[in-house]
From TrEMBL:
Protein name: glycine dehydrogenase (aminomethyl-transferring)
GO-annotated molecular function: glycine dehydrogenase (decarboxylating) activity
Catalytic reaction(s) noted: N(6)-[(R)-lipoyl]-L-lysyl-[glycine-cleavage complex H protein] + glycine + H(+) = N(6)-[(R)-S(8)-aminomethyldihydrolipoyl]-L-lysyl-[glycine-cleavage complex H protein] + CO2
InterPro entries named among the record's database cross-references: Aminotrans_V_dom, GDC-P_C, GDC_P, PyrdxlP-dep_Trfase, PyrdxlP-dep_Trfase_major, PyrdxlP-dep_Trfase_small
Keyword Oxidoreductase set for record: yes
Length: 523
């Protein structure tokens, strides 16, 4: 049995065989937390309210006809409930988060401190512009950094996330096509693209045509050329692509697309791998969204909404949507209305009413300024180094669909190494939960059967990567040695055992219903 430095055993005991069941269902600090509806009572509240003064009902037929039935809890009950839930939630603050194509990196606390500064953390969208000039200048500086890093001409800061940014870029392309008086209604999308790419194109009226991928997941320029025609408006390409590889023929693809009169949209979800190393403008890209909450820290959902600014080449700059920042001699100006436009500015319209993701702008710029240009480049280099370190540590036991070639910021394995073991890809993922790890991205990209996509990011130290690699190696060897039951039962140590996820997805229960009353058995 493994021992720690104090001579105590480190191998966990199996609750089912070594520990008695407890009356509460709790296991020491692992608290069995019930639902709010099971804890509270809907006839009481933890807050005292005065009886309302006489008033006239104005809701008419929309007035509630029954009680709201929310559970009433005391303040300690409410606090404990959410603290206990947080302890059951895997986070980047509690361990390595290997999700591929998601870039769950450490969020430096200085970012949070900056986002909470008075004047930035408490501004309101309806304040007069004269009172938020500091925020406008911050947005202009953020835009300047994004343009410098990408080699592009203009930027739209308003999109709220990656898919929203895709929509922005493709709407600008559609506006540019119309401005030329052309009838282009086809968008080319590679097989390995993120699912939002074809969805975005289809949502605004384009017909999606799939570009087949090479065996390694990259796009063949000859396949693109074969599909180009006067009806093609754009190609949507991810680079580095979803298989974790750099599209080495991107310049040739861009040249062919431009020669056909179409535009090149780049999905910037994986920009984390090339910041400071390659400027997309020099690769021939016309529009690209940038997930600030991926590339420049703040993991998904942290601190509120995401942010997906879109950078445009000179070919599309005029069509950037309102509102946008115009830098003038006296400083940056927020252009909000068509009446404020100047010659050559022909925005396709407006995507949002306000820049509601201001906190994300502050966090991203804080990250950029604290790292500097050289630090951002090193972050990209370290992200690629870490992914290849994981690849090198597992390549003799786990199978790579693209062969043993250098990857970018994420490494892709498939489930071929599990053939004949009786262990499925899902079984492997569930066993990782028992080891204290969130599973890597499973079954994506779809072009690879049984895909396992790992993105460690630059945030992880060598020690944490070594433990992660050693853990996966142990799981692989256990699977190949015939210890199948361990995988089929996993997870054993999670708050809940394996659930019927298919049934849950197809028949979700979205409303809590009070269970039937029960009585204790007669003595």
């Amino acid at each position: 049995m493994a021992m720690n430095t104090q001579g105590r055993p480190t191998a966990p005991t199996t609750p089912e065989t070594s520990a008695p069941e407890t009356f509460t269902g709790n296991r020491a600090l692992q608290i069995e937390e019930a639902l709010l509806f099971e804890i509270g009572r809907n006839d009481v509240t933890g807050v005292d309210f005065d009886d309302p003064a006489p008033f006239t009902e104005r809701l008419g037929k929309h007035a509630r006809k029954s009680s709201i039935d929310l559970p009433g809890l005391s303040e300690p009950e409410a606090m404990r409930h959410y603290v206990r839930l947080s302890q059951k939630n895997y986070s980047i603050d509690s361990g390595l988060y290997p999700l591929g194509s998601c870039t769950m990196k450490h969020n430096p606390r200085i970012n949070e401190k900056m986002a909470r500064l008075p004047g930035l953390g408490d501004i309101h969208p309806l304040q007069p512009l004269s009172t938020v000039q500091g925020a406008v200048e911050l947005m202009a500086e953020l835009g300047r950094w994004l343009l410098e890093m990408t080699g592009m001409t203009s930027v739209a800061l308003s999109p709220k996330a990656g898919a929203h940014g895709e929509l922005c870029g493709m709407m600008a392309i559609k506006a540019a096509v119309r401005a030329k008086g052309e009838n282009r209604n086809i968008v080319l999308v590679p097989e390995s693209a993120h699912g939002t790419n074809p969805a975005t194109a289809a949502a605004i009226g384009f017909k999606v045509v799939t570009v087949p991928a090479r065996p390694d997941g990259t796009v063949d320029p000859e396949a693109v050329k074969a599909l180009l025609s006067p009806e093609v408006a754009a190609i949507m390409l991810t680079n580095p692509n979803t298989c974790g590889l750099f599209e080495r023929d991107v310049v040739e693809i861009a040249a062919a697309v431009h020669a056909a009169g179409a535009f090149f949209y780049c999905d910037g979800a994986n920009f984390n791998a090339i910041v400071g190393k390659a400027k997309v403008g020099e690769l021939g890209v016309d529009a690209m969204h940038i997930n600030l909450h991926k590339t420049f820290s703040t993991p998904h959902g942290g601190g509120g909404p995401g942010a997906g600014p879109v950078v445009f080449s000179e070919r599309l700059s005029a069509f950037a949507p309102l509102p946008f920042i115009r830098v003038e001699a006296d400083g940056p100006v927020l252009v909000e209305n068509e009446s404020e436009l100047q010659a050559g500015e022909t925005p396709f319209g407006r995507m949002v009413a306000f820049h509601g993701q201001m906190g994300m702008f502050v966090r991203a710029l804080s990250y950029m300024l604290s790292h500097g240009a050289d630090g951002l480049q090193q972050a990209s280099e370290d992200a690629v180094l870490n992914a290849n370190y994981v690849r090198a540590g597992l390549r003799d036991l786990m199978s790579q669909p693209s062969g043993d070639r250098t990857c970018m910021h994420e490494v892709l394995f498939d489930d071929t190494f599990l053939d004949g073991t009786g262990v499925t890809t899902l079984d492997f993922a569930k066993a990782m939960i028992d080891e204290g790890y969130h599973p890597m991205t499973m079954y994506f990209p779809l072009v690879v059967h049984g895909a396992m996509l790992i993105e460690p990011t630059e945030s992880e130290s060598k020690a944490s990567l070594d433990l992660f690699v050693a853990t996966l190696r142990d799981l692989v060897m256990k699977a190949k040695s015939g210890d199948v039951e361990r995988f089929h039962q996993a997870p054993l140590y999670a708050p809940r055992r394996r659930l019927d996820e298919t049934r849950a997805a197809r028949s979700p229960k979205l409303k809590w219903e009070k269970p039937e009353p029960w009585s204790e058995a007669a003595e």
